[in-house]
């Protein structure tokens, strides 16, 4: 499915802003998603047939395409698409009984460019804005999220973010939610960080002590260390650099200048490994930290 999403120039304000919703492009995207099975009222259909949540897959193309498939795709409804500048996260509204999936991607190239036979470039200029597209998933059970076939975390009425803005041309990234998994031992979801971080203002930069995260670290261990820093997290997937399914790299957003380059320079993010554990760094909490998983 294809859509045209307009980007907005960055505003340069130090505090995160709620960008205006995309209008024409977002309508096109959401209409296309609903045509593939994202019903506007999934709860009614799910309760009517008594079906349990089984699985749903989000497949993202490198040029902004999103496809939704799986037996429980009717449990998914679109939550909007918004431009995000300087790597900042859009604050989607999430009902307490819903799971929120946020997919960060570049806008789709316009039809006028395609009609002239020109190939749209993968990475827009630094002043361009990426897009965050959100989906609400109606499931009362905890589900297992995996990225390109590798487990990430157990999710229970929470938010999970995936960033595809650094994928190669023609690449596909797949986020799969499967369930229900109930409360089997070892399948708990930890929310202690939510209470610990309740006092943190995401509009104010702050100093943190960088944790130790080596290449090949299990995703669950890296996630726990980053959540203790009260940072929002997003996942990315890239080939090589570590054993598949483990952490290849962690990028912690630093306060200051931002560029939309494929490889973030040290002024933009603290790369782990690469920075000494225990170093103090000024972080911008309005920008999620990225856990890069080896596929």
The structural class is alpha+beta
Mean pLDDT: 75
Number of E strands: 15
Q: Tell me the Rg in angstroms.
A: 19 Å
Work out the helicity level: 10-25%
Distance between the termini: 24 Å
| Relative strand content | 25-35%
Number of domains: 2
Describe the structure.
The protein has 295 residues and is an alpha+beta fold. It has two domains: 24-178, no CATH class; 192-294, no CATH class. It is built from five helices and 15 strands. The strands form four sheets. It has a five-stranded antiparallel β-sheet with strand order 2-1-9-6-7, with no helix packed on it. The longest helix has 12 residues, at 24-35. It starts with 23 loop residues before the first helix and ends with a strand. Mean pLDDT is 75; it is low at 1-50, 110-127 and 183-188.
Describe the secondary structure blueprint for this structure.
Blueprint (H helix, E strand, L loop, with lengths): L23 H12 L6 H8 L5 E7 L4 E4 L6 E9 L14 E7 L5 H5 L14 E8 L5 E5 L2 E6 L3 E5 L8 E7 L13 H5 L9 E4 L9 H9 L5 E6 L8 E7 L15 E4 L7 E4 L5 E6 L1
Parallel strand pairs: 4-8, 11-15
Antiparallel strand pairs: 1-2, 1-9, 3-5, 4-5, 6-7, 6-9, 10-14, 12-13, 12-15
């Amino acid at each position: 499915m294809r859509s045209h999403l307009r980007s907005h120039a960055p505003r340069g304000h130090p505090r995160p802003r709620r960008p205006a919703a995309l209008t024409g492009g977002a309508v096109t995207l959401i209409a296309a998603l609903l045509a593939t099975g994202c019903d506007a009222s999934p709860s009614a259909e799910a309760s009517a047939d008594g079906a349990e949540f089984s699985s749903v897959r989000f497949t993202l193309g490198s040029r902004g395409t999103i496809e939704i498939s799986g037996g429980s795709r009717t449990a998914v409804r679109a939550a909007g698409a918004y431009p995000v500048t300087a790597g900042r996260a859009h604050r989607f509204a999430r009902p307490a009984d819903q799971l929120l999936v946020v997919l960060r991607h570049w806008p789709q190239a316009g039809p006028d460019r395609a009609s002239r036979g020109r190939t749209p470039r993968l990475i827009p200029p630094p002043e361009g804005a990426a897009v965050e597209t959100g989906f609400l998933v109606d499931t009362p059970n905890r589900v297992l999220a995996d990225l390109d076939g590798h487990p990430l975390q157990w999710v229970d009425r929470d938010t999970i973010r995936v960033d595809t803005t650094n994928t190669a041309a023609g690449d596909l990234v797949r986020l799969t939610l499967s369930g229900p998994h109930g409360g089997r031992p070892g399948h708990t979801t930890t929310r202690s960080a939510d209470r610990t971080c309740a006092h943190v203002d995401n509009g104010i930069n702050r100093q943190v002590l960088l944790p130790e995260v080596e290449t090949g670290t299990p995703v669950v261990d890296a996630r726990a260390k980053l959540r203790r820093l009260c940072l929002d997290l997003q996942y990315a997937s890239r080939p090589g650099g570590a054993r598949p399914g483990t952490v290849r790299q962690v990028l912690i957003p630093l306060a200051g200048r931002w560029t939309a380059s494929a490889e973030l320079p040290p002024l933009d993010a603290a790369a782990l490994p690469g920075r000494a554990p225990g170093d103090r760094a000024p972080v911008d909490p309005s920008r999620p930290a990225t856990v890069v998983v080896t596929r």
